[in-house]
Structure formats: C-alpha cells, structure tokens
Specification:
With about 160 residues, the protein is α+β, with helices and mostly antiparallel strands. It contains 1 helix and 8 strands. About 15% of the residues lie in helices and about 35% in strands.
Length: about 160
Amino acid sequence: MKNKTQNIVIILLIIISIMAIGYATFATQLTINGTAKIVGEWDVKITNIIAKNVSDGCNAGTPTFTNVSATFNAELEKPGDSITYEITIENAGTIDAVLSSITFKEGTPNGSPAIIYTNTDPISPLPAGQETTFTVTVSYDEETLEIPEITTKTITGIIEYEQE
C-alpha cells in the first residue's frame, strides 16, 4: 500500500511539473505603450475693418485693428449723417467656434445723446477656416435740432467666441 501511495504522489508531481512547464512555455507578457498629442488650434481673430456708406462731408478716419481689437474714429457733420464699419472675424484655427456673447457699452459717461451706435451680430457657429462680418454703424440723430454741448460718445464692444 505504501508503494502504491508513493507511485500516486510521484505521478502527481510529474503531472504538476508538466503543467508548470506547459504554462511557462505558453505564457506571454504583453506590453502596451501609448502617446496622445493635442493638435487642435484655437485662433479666432479680427482680420479687417473697413468704412462703408460714409455720408457726404463725414470723415471715417483710418480704422485700425489687431487680432483682438478694432478701433475707429468717426466724424459726423450734420443730423442724419452716418458711417458704417464692417469688421471681419476669421476662424483661422482648426476648432469650430460658437458665439457666446456680444456686448456693446458706452465708454464715455454722459456722452452725446445725439450720437447713436447700432450693430449687427456675426454669424454663429463659425466653422474652422471660415470668416464672418458684422457691422457697427455710428450716426448723428436726425431728430437733433441743434448742435449738442457734448459732441463725442465712445463705445466698447466685446465679442466672445468659445469652442463648440
């Protein structure tokens, strides 16, 4: 009986050894490496500003702009005069942009009530590689009957785009 038990133990050890050799032979370690890179580019900017529809006798000045601002100085002569400035915004990046807000505020306290500013809105969304225009019109209120004491009024416009 002792011999039989020893044989069983030896056979079990041989089976376990064969299984261990088989596992080691067929076991494989897998390694996965990865790298991620952001290639999208955000580049929404002002690319042009031009004066249009300038009333006779008015001076549109020389409008200027940078990537993020546009400046103009209008000189109006008489009631009913107006100048329209067309501002171009370009999405030169690779990410679509959507208009999140547009705000125009008077910058001069107690500016002339005879000067009126109006604007249109740029398109939204603004796809990558596309451009849009909007206008700002400054006009001398045609209902003004006399030259106002205060003759200037400034505005500041903020146009905000965000990624879609």
